[in-house]
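REQUEST FORM: STRUCTURE PREDICTION
Request ID: SP-0412
Submitted by: Lab K.M.
Chain count: 1
Length (residues): 100
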Amino acid sequence: MSNQVGVKFTYYRNGTTISRMTDFEDMQEVINHGLESVALDCIQEVFCTTGLDLNQLSYPHTATRFCFFSELSYDADQTITEGKRKTVLNNRSKKRDLVY
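STATUS: Completed
RESULT:
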């Protein structure tokens, strides 16, 4: 019996958190389908089910900038744990040369 639960999609910005389980069993499946593509599908599904437009909440940025996926599994004591977190877009700016 596998202890893998599946992959969770999460949007987080300015204290707003929206999470939903995806149909994927592990992170490799999400990566194979494309992180951004799967995130866009999840964002669309959130809109269709709740009417909440995550792109409007993210303005002037795209919603994918604030999304990540994480694998969920359970321990021997049936505690759910979150691991293997992957951000959709890497927003870290590259070190820039200082001009004096």
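NOTES: Residues 4 and 73 are 4 Å apart (CA to CA).
Reviewed by: T.R.
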